């Protein structure tokens, strides 16, 4: 099992947990949550187009030419923001193996929630980000183990970022996972304890 296997399991788990969840969209309708691993798409990238499982019919709701102008220098346009937000990003950031002979390692995974909100009070954005993180926390704490292999370590914590990047709102959850390591089998011919030729004679070369 690898750290990326755990991230795949987390994405599958959250997709199922949020399958029926709809959040308010900028056009007054509702929209689902998109999921990404490692990072959000870059502005203007083709990969920004939602995958079939993410599409919910609300990606392109306004065709005003101004909606294709970047909201800030080098940033997303309104139409791009509507295509990828609200979003969850799953990113492994740290792995620590056990001592020799241990069968378990610890993986740190950051789960970020991002929301696009241009409302006058900008109150919905942070509320939605918190709701995503809180629901994720509840789902993880209820399940504890994903697919019988990936165990989350409690407690789970999250925090909301400040408003420096408004109208985008972000929060993140830091999670620790216990993952089973692959057992290493050392072939007898390569066992350093027996010498270079596998028969205990290698040490004579230093004699």
Order of strands side by side in the largest beta sheet? 3-4-5-8-7-6
Structural class: alpha+beta
Which second-level CATH architecture applies? Answer: 2-Layer Sandwich
CATH superfamily: Phage tail protein-like
Which regions have little confidence, pLDDT < 50, spanning 5+ residues?
46-50, 57-63, 200-207
The end-to-end span amounts to 43 Å
Q: Domains counted in the coordinates: how many?
A: 1
Shape: elongated
Q: Any idea what the radius of gyration is?
A: 23 Å
**Assembly state:** single chain
The CATH first-level class comes to Alpha Beta
The amount of helix comes to: 10-25%
Instruction: Tally the beta strands.
Output: 8
Helices and strands in order, then pairings?
Elements: H1 3-17, E1 23-24, E2 30-31, E3 34-37, H2 78-84, E4 87-96, E5 104-116, H3 124-143, E6 145-146, E7 150-160, E8 168-180
Parallel strand pairs: 3-4
Antiparallel strand pairs: 1-2, 4-5, 5-8, 6-7, 7-8
Could you explain the architecture of this structure?
This protein is α+β, with helices and mostly antiparallel strands. The chain has a single domain (3-206), classed as STM4215-like, CATH 3.30.2000.10. The chain has helices at 3-17, 78-84, 124-143; strands spanning 23-24, 30-31, 34-37, 87-96, 104-116, 145-146, 150-160, 168-180. Strand 4 (87-96) and strand 5 form a beta hairpin. The model is unreliable at 46-50, 57-63 and 200-207 (pLDDT under 50).
């Amino acid at each position: 099992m690898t750290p990326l296997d755990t991230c795949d399991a987390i994405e599958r788990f959250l997709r199922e947990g949020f399958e029926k969840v709809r959040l308010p969209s900028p056009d007054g309708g509702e929209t689902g949550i998109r999921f990404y691993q490692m990072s959000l798409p870059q502005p203007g990238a083709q990969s920004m187009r939602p995958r079939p499982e993410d599409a919910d019919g609300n990606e392109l709701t306004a065709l005003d030419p101004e909606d294709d102008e970047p909201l800030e220098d080098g940033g997303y346009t309104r139409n791009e923001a509507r295509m990828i937000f609200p979003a969850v990003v799953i990113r492994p950031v740290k792995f620590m193996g056990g001592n020799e002979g241990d069968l378990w390692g610890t993986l740190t995974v950051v789960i970020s929630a991002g929301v696009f909100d241009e409302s006058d009070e900008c109150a919905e954005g942070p509320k939605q980000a918190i709701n995503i993180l809180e629901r994720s926390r509840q789902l993880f704490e209820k399940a504890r183990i994903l697919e019988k292999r990936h165990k989350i370590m409690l407690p789970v914590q999250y925090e909301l970022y400040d408003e420096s990047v408004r109208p985008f709102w972000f929060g993140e959850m830091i999670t620790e996972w216990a993952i089973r390591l692959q057992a290493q089998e050392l072939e007898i011919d390569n066992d350093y304890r027996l010498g270079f030729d596998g028969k205990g004679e290698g040490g004579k070369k230093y004699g």
